[in-house]
Design goal:
Length: about 270
């Protein structure tokens, strides 16, 4: 399992790198993001393309993942700069067509790892055609924007409703590594990190983003963050070895929790 964290603060990144966070995630996506998420309690990053070189030169263990903008007239130039500055993995957000994926892969041209961020209803509907494209190294299912595009109330409805299962099976059939969403600490989160981790095990997921709530532990105390991160990794290893996990009960509990959250949101909207 690859653990990723969205960050451009160099001092924090050095600490994340030293304790084994697998990927530092630089977020350059700006196009369309404010329109989609400006009304929500989400973070629109202030990362810049100049961060890549500075951060890459300070990494000893972690890989550097850069989320670029959706395909546009400046994509080739943006991709060139990201690669030149040291990006190990490039992530394409908000794609809707097979052609956009092909364009992205051709611009990268084997010089960095390809990660697709699947987060639009169009990509969901066209998943079979998209998965036929050669050169996809991995796919991350973006629960936040995908649930917004489907007019749902809570991103984990995609998990409790079976849509993540549907996509996971399609992607696994092509032998492409995948991940989904973010994860909180083991005992915290609207849906606890422990419950979500079991779903990653059940679905054979191989990557996840440490959520903003998880990341906030570092702002409070890095020792606390490290403790929770170590707990998460140990729990993962424990679950991998456990042949008696009751996955059915776990997803039932997730569904109950999701339904309560959705119901509470519905009451607030009335």
């Amino acid at each position: 399992m690859k653990f990723m964290i969205i960050e451009n603060d160099l001092e924090l990144i050095k600490k994340y790198d030293s304790i084994g966070v697998d990927r530092i995630f630089i977020d350059l996506e700006i196009i369309g993001k404010k329109e989609r998420q400006g009304h929500l309690d989400t973070v629109i990053s202030n990362h810049s393309i100049q961060d890549i070189k500075k951060i890459k030169s300070n990494l000893k263990n972690s890989k550097l993942l850069v989320r670029i903008n959706p395909i546009n007239e400046n994509s080739e130039s943006e991709i060139e700069t990201c690669i030149k500055n040291g990006a190990d993995i490039l992530m394409l957000p908000m794609f809707k067509t097979k052609r956009e994926v092909e364009t992205f892969i051709s611009f990268v041209n084997g010089r960095a790892k390809i990660c697709l961020l699947l987060e639009t209803t169009e990509a969901l509907c066209r998943i079979d055609d998209i998965l036929e494209v050669d050169g996809i190294d991995e796919i991350h299912i973006g629960l936040n924007d995908l649930h917004l595009s489907m007019n749902l109330d809570f991103m984990f409805e995609l998990l409790s409703g079976g849509l993540v299962d549907y996509l996971a099976n399609k992607i696994k059939n092509k032998k492409i590594p995948f991940g989904f969403g973010g994860i909180a600490t083991i005992d915290n989160g609207m849906i606890s990190g422990g419950m979500i981790l079991k779903e990653h095990i059940r679905l054979d997921s191989s990557m996840v983003i440490l959520s903003r709530a998880f990341k906030n532990e570092a702002a409070e105390s890095f020792d606390k963050f490290e403790k929770e991160f170590v707990r998460l990794k140990l729990k993962l290893e424990e679950l991998k070895k456990d042949k008696n996990i009751d996955f059915i009960s776990n997803i039932k509990e997730i569904k109950k929790s999701v339904n309560k959250i959705v119901e509470s949101k519905g009451k607030m909207d009335v």
